[in-house]
Amino acid sequence: MARELMHFIGGRTVKGASGRFHDVYNPTTGDVQAKTPLASAAEVRAAVVAAQKVFPEWAAQNPQKRARVMFNFKTLVEKNMDELAKMLSAEHGKVLADSRGDVQRGLEVIEFACGIPHLLKGEYTENAGTGIDVYSMRQPLGVVAGITPFNFPAMIPMWMFGVAVAAGNTFICKPSERDPSVPLRLAELFLEAGAPAGVLNVVNGDKEAVDAILKDPDIKAVSFVGSTAVAEYVYQNGTANGKRVQAMGGAKNHAIIMPDADLDQVVDDLIGAGYGSAGERCMAISVAVPVTDKLGDELVRRLKPRVESLKVAPSTDPDANYGPLVTREHREKVKNYIDMGVKEGAELVVDGRDFRLQGYENGFFLGGSLFDHVKPTMKTYQDEIFGPVLQVVRAKDFDEAAALPTKHSYGNGVAIFTRDGDAAREFASKVQVGMVGINVPIPVPLAYHTFGGWKRSAFGDVNQHGPEGVRFFTKIKTVTARWPKGGVREGASFVIPTMK
Ligand code: NAD
User: With a 6 A CB cut-off, is 334 part of the ligand 1 pocket?
Assistant: First the structure.
């Protein structure tokens, strides 16, 4: 019998009441291991009420005390790292070491959030006018929500609630229905860390819960990460309802390889960044662009045996390079893209479609695939595939290569491999992409910088975590204060005050 998962509302686990559920698979065996309740609008509302009730108390707490809760939470997550990583791998399928990385990258945002007293400090001008001082302060918004994707079930919720709750907001997380157990466990640990009940709530659900979040007048801001179509929907509907929205979407990340690059290192980097986590990363490299045909021939010659020898195995195998995909449906989608690539005329150098793992025939495994001679006009190039598939698009020179990520509709991440500082500098300056790596294949910014793509990879103007995250989850108030000396009156003024 599949376990029934719960919601976490107002500091306690709550049974789903809608009667609707979503299957959570064990992607290694293909079995259904749990059922996620899918919240109705009324259940979302219950979480909003719980979060609203505690907001005044939490917002009024001095920031250092909130920081201490963040610090306790960090310690608790570290203590429970093994349990969290196993739970994450069991639902997502990524290898254990990668699941630890998922938790750790989230914890880095919690570490950043431990500095919230400093991050919330405003500015002060003494004597802005005679006897007048001006100061600004950052205040929390109220109840805010985060809607997260399946591929980083620990990191992305922590990107969002880490900053939001430290800043004094109360939070509703709506995790992916495909792997919700880690966010639920994080909410329990947050309570154990000393947060008042209702500061962090987890409501499981699908479109119905998302729509309820987008419509609820008491939810002031929505942070979303997921596919582009849903990101755009969330952005449009959330902003139409007067909410502050940041919505990160899909990606197609190019790696430009210049003829002077260290090719052995590039091959290692492409293998790791292209196939790690079965390519289910928004910062995965999915397109390699060797500059010159000669380099293209050599690159593909070296990549081929490496892709053929990838070790695809259960997440618990310490030697596995990557595990199964998240669901059967997603694996079929990736396979269909490989079929389409062949039909479109790209050369399938390594075909992972028929991969079977003995003993795990019903698991959602897929071998690594490699395409050469992919053209920008192909749909498989234009779309995000989100699987263990690397596409090689050859370019005759630097300009042709550099134009590809700039012209692509997505603009999340990009990398250039070269020893030429001039080329790298020009590329980093001109490319129309939000996150750039120079000899770094996955340029995910650290927690105290900010994460965000451009073009159809992100809707809204403010990035995730770092100083931008603090800006997103706070509003600024500016106070102009005068303490007139007793007995001195200036009389009524009918003109706008100016600096004389
Ligand atoms: P998804 O869009 O299917 O789901 C994301 C969230 O939206 C989930 O919580 C889901 O329940 C909800 N949702 C799904 N369909 C919906 C609908 N029709 N209406 C309202 N809500 C809906 O994304 P996913 O498959 O879970 O995650 C993979 C995608 O996320 C990829 O496209 C990947 O590139 C992207 N991603 C982007 C970033 C980034 O920062 N840019 C990071 C990680 C993942």
Answer: no
Examine domains 3-249+457-479 and 253-438 and report if their fold is the same: no
Mutation to probe ligand 1, out of 152, 176, 382 (largest number of atoms < 8 A from CB)? 176
- Classified by CATH at the fold level, domain 253-438 comes out as Aldehyde Dehydrogenase; Chain A, domain 2 (3.40.309)
Per-domain residue ranges for the chain?
3-249+457-479, 253-438
Q: Which residue has the tokens 């021939």?
A: 297
pTM for this structure? Answer: 0.97
- Ligand 1, atom nearest to 174 Cα: 9
- Which residues of the chain have a pLDDT value below 50? none
Predicted local distance difference test score (pLDDT) of residue 233: 98
What is the per-residue pLDDT for 500? 67
According to DSSP, the residues that pair with 98 across neighbouring strands are none
- What is the 272 CA–ligand 1 centroid distance (Å)? 23
Q: Is the Cβ–Cβ distance between 339 and 351 less than 8 Å?
A: no
CA dist list (Å): 85 to 1, 215, 248, 308, 465: 23, 34, 24, 28, 22
Do the Cβ atoms of 433 and 411 come closer than 8 Å?
yes
Ligand 1 atom closest to Cα of 150? 26
Ligand 1 centre distance from Cα of residue 415 (Å): 24
Query: Is the CB–ligand 1 distance for residue 220 below 6 Å?
Result: no
- Cα(414)–Cα(482) distance, integer angstroms: 51
**What CATH number matches the domain at 3-249+457-479, 3.10.129.10, 2.30.30.50, 3.40.605.10, 3.40.1170.60?**
3.40.605.10
